[in-house]
Structure formats: C-alpha cells, structure tokens
C-alpha cells in the first residue's frame, strides 16, 4: 500500500496495473520531450538576434502540423490497447459480486452456495495493533492467486465506486445497474482500497480489503465457511 512519502503509484499486483504504470511512464517521457523542445525554442528566441526578413516557412508549417499528430498517435495507440484489455473478460475462474451500501460493502461469491457476507470498517477503538486505521475491515475479500476474478459491481442506495489501486481496478457501483471488471492477482498479499465516489457523510469509512492467497488456501477457507 502507499506510504506517506510516496510520490508514485503503488506496486503493481496485476497485469493491468503493470500496463497502466508503463503507459504512465511512456506518457511522461513524451511530455518531457515536448517541454524540452519548447524550452529550447524559447531560450533560442530570447538569446538570438531577431531578423525582420520574411522566409518561406512551408516546411516548418508542415513539420509543426505533422509532429503533434504523430505525438497523439503514440499516446492513443497504447491507451486504446489498455482500454480493450481492461474490458476483456474471457472465462473467469471466480465471480464475485460487490454491492455498495451506505456505508459498507456486501460480497457474494456466486460460484458457491450461500457464500455472502457484509464488510464493515473496523472502528479505531477496536483496531488490533499493527493494522491500518480507516482501511481495515472485519471481513476481507479472499481470492485465489493467479486466477482470473470477475467482479460484478452494483449499489443498493446511492452511487459508490469499488476501487483497489494495486490491482488496477476502479468500477462505479450504480443502483439498478450491473457493471463488471476483472483482475488477476499475481502474488499473495493484502491489497487495500476505498470507495472512490462521494456517497454521503461516511464516504471515507467504507474501505475495501482484498486478500490474495494460494489456491489451496482459498479452497480450505471456503470449505470452513458455513453452508
């Protein structure tokens, strides 16, 4: 998860988040090149003597018309690729339904019978030592590592948003509508997120915790739950 002095993204824990971070770095390099070119031209104009002679500048006009178009293409193509990758959901290994309420989440494992629970934030007064304030919940979402997980997101009352930055997931929860997204947790760990849509007075107090465990541990966890 993020720390107080962190300026960049959280460590990627899914292929989509790795792609997003790479595209972010790519876009920054393009922006750096543009800023360097503009700064060089400004410095040149301020330091060189100006000439009043008129010059036929058709070549220059052609360059500054084609160059921005090429820059936009270098940004658009990888961006569209990632958008299609984020929308592509083939055959998931596990389907999870997340329902937003004011101000908690309800999770349903649709591949299992009667596997449903509510997830509330742990109050600060009840928080165990070493756990994160305003981020820990009483029931975590348990998913298997290296497995395609489809998340169906909806809401029961107002707009919410199910977001976990490390997994590259952010989907709006809209009452009366089902949205879906997917992710693959590439390594075991605990990933924290929060509702990313202002949903009322306690909007800041409905965190999301996803715990990725090996498949054998996930099967053991699901077998211990009451049927």
TrEMBL record:
<feature type="transmembrane region" description="Helical">
    <location>
        <begin position="66"/>
        <end position="84"/>
    </location>
</feature>
<keyword id="KW-0249">Electron transport</keyword>
<dbReference type="InterPro" id="IPR008972">
    <property type="entry name" value="Cupredoxin"/>
</dbReference>
<keyword id="KW-0460">Magnesium</keyword>
<dbReference type="GO" id="GO:0016491">
    <property type="term" value="F:oxidoreductase activity"/>
</dbReference>
<keyword id="KW-0999">Mitochondrion inner membrane</keyword>
<keyword id="KW-0472">Membrane</keyword>
<feature type="domain" description="Cytochrome oxidase subunit II copper A binding">
    <location>
        <begin position="91"/>
        <end position="224"/>
    </location>
</feature>
<dbReference type="GO" id="GO:0004129">
    <property type="term" value="F:cytochrome-c oxidase activity"/>
</dbReference>
<dbReference type="InterPro" id="IPR002429">
    <property type="entry name" value="CcO_II-like_C"/>
</dbReference>
<keyword id="KW-0479">Metal-binding</keyword>
<keyword id="KW-0813">Transport</keyword>
<dbReference type="GO" id="GO:0005507">
    <property type="term" value="F:copper ion binding"/>
</dbReference>
<feature type="domain" description="Cytochrome oxidase subunit II transmembrane region profile">
    <location>
        <begin position="1"/>
        <end position="90"/>
    </location>
</feature>
<dbReference type="InterPro" id="IPR036257">
    <property type="entry name" value="Cyt_c_oxidase_su2_TM_sf"/>
</dbReference>
<protein>
    <recommendedName>
        <fullName>Cytochrome c oxidase subunit 2</fullName>
    </recommendedName>
</protein>
<dbReference type="GO" id="GO:0042773">
    <property type="term" value="P:ATP synthesis coupled electron transport"/>
</dbReference>
<comment type="similarity">
    <text>Belongs to the cytochrome c oxidase subunit 2 family.</text>
</comment>
<dbReference type="InterPro" id="IPR045187">
    <property type="entry name" value="CcO_II"/>
</dbReference>
<keyword id="KW-1278">Translocase</keyword>
<dbReference type="InterPro" id="IPR014222">
    <property type="entry name" value="Cyt_c_oxidase_su2"/>
</dbReference>
<dbReference type="Pfam" id="PF02790">
    <property type="entry name" value="COX2_TM"/>
</dbReference>
<dbReference type="InterPro" id="IPR011759">
    <property type="entry name" value="Cyt_c_oxidase_su2_TM_dom"/>
</dbReference>
<keyword id="KW-0186">Copper</keyword>
<keyword id="KW-0812">Transmembrane</keyword>
<dbReference type="InterPro" id="IPR034210">
    <property type="entry name" value="CcO_II_C"/>
</dbReference>
<dbReference type="InterPro" id="IPR001505">
    <property type="entry name" value="Copper_CuA"/>
</dbReference>
<keyword id="KW-1133">Transmembrane helix</keyword>
<feature type="transmembrane region" description="Helical">
    <location>
        <begin position="27"/>
        <end position="46"/>
    </location>
</feature>
<keyword id="KW-0679">Respiratory chain</keyword>
<dbReference type="Pfam" id="PF00116">
    <property type="entry name" value="COX2"/>
</dbReference>
<dbReference type="GO" id="GO:0005743">
    <property type="term" value="C:mitochondrial inner membrane"/>
</dbReference>
<keyword id="KW-0496">Mitochondrion</keyword>
<comment type="function">
    <text>Component of the cytochrome c oxidase, the last enzyme in the mitochondrial electron transport chain which drives oxidative phosphorylation. The respiratory chain contains 3 multisubunit complexes succinate dehydrogenase (complex II, CII), ubiquinol-cytochrome c oxidoreductase (cytochrome b-c1 complex, complex III, CIII) and cytochrome c oxidase (complex IV, CIV), that cooperate to transfer electrons derived from NADH and succinate to molecular oxygen, creating an electrochemical gradient over the inner membrane that drives transmembrane transport and the ATP synthase.</text>
</comment>
């Amino acid at each position: 998860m993020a720390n107080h002095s962190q300026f960049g993204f959280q460590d990627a824990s899914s292929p989509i988040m790795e792609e997003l971070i790479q595209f972010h770095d790519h876009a920054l390099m393009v922006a750096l090149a543009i800023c360097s070119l503009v700064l060089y031209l400004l410095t040149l104009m301020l330091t060189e003597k100006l000439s009043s002679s008129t010059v036929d500048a058709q070549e220059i006009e052609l360059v500054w018309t084609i160059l921005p178009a090429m820059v936009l293409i270098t940004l658009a193509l990888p961006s569209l690729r990632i958008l299609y990758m984020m929308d592509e959901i083939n055959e998931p290994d596990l389907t999870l339904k997340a329902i937003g309420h004011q101000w908690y989440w309800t999770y349903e494992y649709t591949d299992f019978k009667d596997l449903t629970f509510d997830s509330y934030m742990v109050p600060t007064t009840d928080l165990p030592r070493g756990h994160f304030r305003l981020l820990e919940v009483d029931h975590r979402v348990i998913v298997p590592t290296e497995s395609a997980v489809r998340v169906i997101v909806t809401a029961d009352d107002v707009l919410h948003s199910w977001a976990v930055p490390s997994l590259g997931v952010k989907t709006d929860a809209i009452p009366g509508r089902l949205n879906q997204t997917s992710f693959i947790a590439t390594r075991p760990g605990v990933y924290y997120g929060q509702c990313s849509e202002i949903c009322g007075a306690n909007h800041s107090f409905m965190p999301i915790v996803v715990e990725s465990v090996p498949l054998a541990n996930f099967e053991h966890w699901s077998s211990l739950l009451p049927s």
